[in-house]
Design a protein that fits this description.
Layout lengths: L9 E4 L6 E4 L4 E4 L6 E4 L18 H10 L15 E2 L2 E2 L4 H17 L3 H20 L3 H14 L3 H17 L3 H8 L9 H18 L2 H8 L13 H14 L3 H12 L5 H12 L9 H22 L3 H27 L2 H4 L6 H39 L1 E17 L2 E11 L6 E8 L2 H4 L7 E7 L2 E7 L2
Antiparallel strand pairs: 1-2, 3-4, 5-6, 7-8, 7-10, 8-9, 10-11
């Protein structure tokens, strides 16, 4: 067990250089050993958040309805810091600027509460905490959360921060500290952010202790049983699926993981893989994950094939073949008519030979065109399906869109021009054809980042993940 998030210690960020400082729980003066600046901290706020002690039971169904009304609202960075992010991720080379803005926001909140500044601080706290985690700087990650907790005043902000510290402690095996971080929090809040934070934190601790039925009771059995805010919902789905698997409902666990994996044009599958890897020692979803992965790949391959072919491959191919058969027979009749083989033609019903002979050329031409188009579409679909499962994962940026001139059912085929970034390689230009209707075009605007799968033998052959 690690004591990195022990409740009996305290870590704060230096106000000048941002270094993590160990300070007394009761606050006071501490001099930074890196830059020499004296930092002054107030005692840690131990006051319970609204509703914990003596909260009336009320109508739980009505509370769930009020929470559900707050769901489905994406978390977007405030306008003044939007330039620090691309595709929802903090830009690496702007981290120092983000830290400076975070420090400025922290100082401003010490002077006076300000809801807009607090929202900015919270958004940057979450983004920077993830950055420090990826870099393995857990001391600074904790310092970031605790220092933010010292200056925010809104209960939902405090509960979110305590929830993160609780989960980090549970992840390290320090369940006593996890309980202490969560203790002042409200388990029956009317605010979705507060309620979601409490639920996922409780699920973490129950997972750590093997109380999987407790996880299901907290998060609900189905995807829609309990409202969970969007930013936490993927984590809730994974921990719920793990609990369902552990109590014997492998089918439901696989179904929920599959749905999550298919979300976000490939982002869902990456997220599930990342989370399960991050908590590898907890053995999350050991049975349901490979089953869901296989099912998601199969369904994604089918979707990629449909987009690549416009859904016309098999139809055009077999209809074309069906037209070629009478066309060829009609051509034979026409040839016999030209040769004057009346004795053979008398074997056919009256009028049929004349009809087949007249229709031969149109049937042959149309059938050949449809079979050729269908065969090309089938090959494109098969290639897309193969690459979606077996291609090398990469990221790409849309640089341009252009029409190919082909349209199926009023849906145009577009050539999407991309700058592709394979791991440890220089970016290169490539393109892919897809049938996109009007509402799909916005998802591929120039500058948009997409996940792709690249043919390892031919980097120009690729498919955009669906």
């Amino acid at each position: 067990m690690s004591s990195s998030y022990s409740y009996q210690t305290r870590v704060a960020m230096c106000e000048k250089c941002g270094a993590p400082l160990e300070v007394a729980v009761g606050g006071g003066h501490v001099q930074c050993g890196y830059c020499g600046v004296s930092n002054e901290l107030l005692p840690r706020d131990e006051n319970p958040l609204a509703g914990v002690h003596g909260a009336a039971a009320g109508n739980e169904q009505q509370r769930m309805a009020r929470l559900a009304a707050q769901d489905g609202k994406p978390s977007m960075p405030p306008d003044e810091i939007a330039g620090l992010f691309e595709q929802g991720e903090l830009v690496e080379w702007k981290v120092d600027e983000a830290v400076q803005i975070w420090q400025d926001s922290r100082r401003a909140l010490r002077t006076a509460p300000n809801p807009a500044v607090a929202e900015r601080l919270m958004f940057l706290t979450m983004a920077l905490a993830n950055h420090f985690f990826v870099k393995g700087d857990t001391s600074r990650q904790r310092a970031l959360f605790e220092s933010a907790l010292d200056v925010v005043t809104l209960p939902r902000h405090k509960q979110s921060l305590r929830g993160y510290l609780c989960r980090l402690a549970a992840r390290d095996g320090d369940l006593q500290a996890a309980e202490q971080w969560l203790a002042p929090c409200d388990p029956r809040s009317e605010d979705l952010e507060m309620d979601s934070s409490w639920r996922i934190s409780r699920a973490f601790m129950d997972t750590a202790t093997g109380n999987f039925q407790g996880v299901v009771d907290t998060l609900g059995r189905g995807l829609k049983d309990v409202p969970i805010m969007d930013t936490i919902e993927p984590l809730a789905i994974i921990f719920r699926a793990n609990a369902l698997e552990r109590i014997g409902d492998l089918e439901a666990a696989t179904e929920q993981l599959t749905a999550l994996m298919l979300a976000g044009h490939g982002a869902g599958q990456k997220m599930v893989t990342k989370v399960i890897g991050r908590y590898q020692d907890w053995g999350l979803c050991q049975q349901s994950f490979p089953l869901a992965q296989a099912k998601a790949n199969q369904m994604a391959a089918k979707a990629s094939a449909s987009v690549a072919s416009g859904g016309i491959g098999s139809i055009f191919y077999y209809v074309g073949l069906a037209m070629l058969i009478p066309g060829l027979f009609g051509g034979l009749v026409f040839m016999l008519q030209s040769l004057g083989a009346d004795s053979v033609l008398r074997l056919l019903p009256a009028g049929l030979s004349d009809g087949l002979g007249a229709a031969a050329i149109p049937l042959l031409i149309t059938g050949f065109i449809m079979a050729t188009i269908g065969r090309k579409a089938k090959l494109a679909a098969a290639k897309a399906a193969y690459l979606r499962v077996h291609g090398v994962p990469a990221t790409a940026t849309v640089t341009n869109l252009s029409r190919t001139g082909t349209t199926v059912n009023d849906v145009p085929q577009m050539r999407i021009h991309l700058s592709v970034q394979l791991k440890d390689q220089a970016p290169y230009d490539a393109s892919v054809k897809m049938y996109l209707d009007a509402h799909q075009l916005a998802s591929f605007a120039p500058g948009t980042k997409v996940s792709v799968r690249v043919d390892p033998n031919n980097p120009q052959e690729l498919v955009i993940e669906q």
